[in-house]
Amino acid sequence: MKKRNRGINKMITKTQIQKAGFPTGVALLHDASLNKGTAFTEKERDMFGLRGLLPPRVCTLDTQVMRVLENFRRKSDDLEKYIFLMGLQARNETLFYRVLVDNLDEMMPIIYTPTVGQACQEYGHIFRSPRGLFISAKDRGRVPDLLRNWPHEDVRIIVVTDGERILGLGDLGANGMGIPVGKLALYTACAGVHPRLTLPVTLDVGTENEQLLDDPLYIGIPEQRIRGKAYDELFDEFLVAAQDFFPHVMIQLEDFANANAFRLLKKYRNQTCIFDDDIQGTAAVALAGLYSALRITKGTFKDQRILFFGAGQAGIGIGDLIVAGLVDEGLPVKDARSRCWFVDSKGLVVKGRRNLAEHKLAYAHDHEFLPDLLSAVESLRPTAIIGVSGQPGMFTEKVLRAMARFNERPIVFALSNPTSKTECTAEEAYAWTEGRAIFASGSPFDPVTLNGKTYIPAQGNNAYIFPGLGLGVIACGAKHITDRMFLLAAKALAHEISEDDLKEGHIYPPLAKIRSVSAVIAAAVCEVAYDQGIASKKRPQDLLEMIKSQMYWPEYWT
Ligand code: NAD
């Protein structure tokens, strides 16, 4: 879906160029948002003092893409590919995004899970140049000064982490910056949010990762995490300052540990435009996958028994959205909740258990306690199991064979990231269910061939939801982000899956369609905002067309 850049996503204008201060010469080549590298025309080379600073042959953007891909594919390991892409982003943003948009299938596993996980683990060692804003515990009392240093005035989306639960890899402290950077790149690639409207933020509140504390190349403050009042004050100062400087900003909480994630979301969700992707974004992607899977099994939504392995942000978030979906279909909340069961690190979540965390209480049903996943599967006979535990290999052969015994088409979502943390591999899921599983994973898997038949595993990728959500929030100027937005986003995503997709076993649309899918999700989000009276912009006549017209397309300014 190609569109000229209009609206807030517009390109550089002639007036801007003529304004004093527009960089020339080497400064222009070093400005990633303006740089065209070898694609500067003969005229531009004269106009901006570039003659001699570039090789004489003028290239097109397409030729540059060809060169990037050749270099990218020459790299023998994924971390090197990541480093190469980050270098390109720092050098020439337009080229970076064009490469991404045109080759999402190939690039997504590098800038996002699983490779971004390794990149975060080694961030201090592969560090080349800074990206985003680092706000440390030592900046309490002067956070506005840091935001003032950000070079762009109109920021619409901030992705912020405190690095405490990076994917399923645990506390990576300030190294977590790779996640906001990667997610925001996806806002641009998947939903056409102009890169200048995005800001990655890491709150460096310390780390409890001893390995990082001992590492001289660690990029964060080598101190223990601050907690309690000091933490809350820093977060609050950041949030207030962010809204002050960027009044239209939407804030995405990313990879916080679950106690802070639930708490911060609850505290701020009605005051500001904020959401937590691990709780709410994951939920919408999983629910969409479930809707599609039911089109294959021909099961009805209200007759499902869903067993979660892991009762943290992702698990409870998905459970809550499933409940919202069932309530939307007319089921009372209590009955809707009875469709969702959870196993956590101690066993089945049941009423008789003591000291259950608050977020699990709604799902503590009247049932005997069972110590593990297998006994829970045998007893509850779920139609679907959803892994969100960060514990690899826990969907064992016994568990999957039991699922295959109870279901003609067992639904198996192993969502833990990165690949090293997945509850089972695609091959295991298909092999241990005689190819009958409807499988989705958090990180991508290659197709699997079993007994001459090839299966294409789905990726339950949050990138199907959050970019479209952000685009919608910007388009209608939503003041808050509501649960209903995620429910309708999930429905919109599920609706984008054709019968042909399903026949081939896909439960999500192909990535090649993601920009048009994001536009549809954005429209669904806007509709909710208009219905709920929380949009600050007037509803246009043709909502979808307006949204599409605002999407940034990576091409050079002229
Ligand atoms: P979390 O820390 O909030 O929750 C983890 C849960 O797993 C906790 O309830 C914990 O009790 C449970 N757990 C830990 N060890 C266990 C064990 N041995 N047996 C049973 N349960 C156990 O983390 P989260 O944010 O919910 O994320 C969990 C995983 O889901 C991570 O790997 C994350 O990368 C992944 N995730 C994937 C997606 C996606 O694919 N779209 C999105 C969000 C999170």
Topology:
Elements: H1 14-18, H2 25-29, H3 42-47, H4 61-74, H5 78-91, H6 93-102, H7 104-111, H8 115-121, H9 123-126, E1 133-136, H10 143-148, E2 157-161, H11 178-191, E3 198-204, H12 210-213, H13 228-245, E4 250-253, H14 258-268, E5 274-276, H15 277-297, E6 306-309, H16 313-328, H17 333-337, E7 340-344, E8 347-348, H18 373-380, E9 384-387, H19 397-406, E10 411-414, H20 426-431, E11 438-441, E12 448-450, E13 453-455, E14 458-459, H21 466-476, H22 483-495, H23 499-503, H24 514-531, H25 543-549
Parallel strand pairs: 1-3, 2-3, 2-4, 4-5, 6-7, 6-9, 9-10, 10-11, 11-14
Antiparallel strand pairs: 7-8, 12-13
Helix pairs in contact: 5-6, 5-8, 6-7, 6-11, 11-21, 15-16, 15-22, 18-19, 21-24, 22-24, 24-25
Nicotinamide-adenine-dinucleotide is lined by residues 165, 167-168, 258, 278, 282, 285, 309-315, 343-345, 388-391, 415-417, 421, 442, 460, 462.
Structure description:
- This protein has 558 residues and is α/β, with parallel strands linked by helices.
- It has 4 domains: 7-101, Hemocyanin, N-terminal domain; 106-272, Malic enzyme, N-terminal domain (Rossmann fold), CATH 3.40.50.10380; 285-460, NAD(P)-binding Rossmann-like Domain (Rossmann fold, 3-Layer(aba) Sandwich), CATH 3.40.50; 468-474 and 482-549, no CATH class.
- Helices cover 44% and strands 10% of the residues.
- The protein contains 25 helices and 14 strands.
- Helix 24 crosses helix 25 (543-549).
- The radius of gyration is 24 Å and the shape is globular.
- The model has no long low-confidence stretch (mean pLDDT 95).
- Bound molecules: nicotinamide-adenine-dinucleotide.
- Nicotinamide-adenine-dinucleotide binds next to helix 15, helix 16 and strand 7.
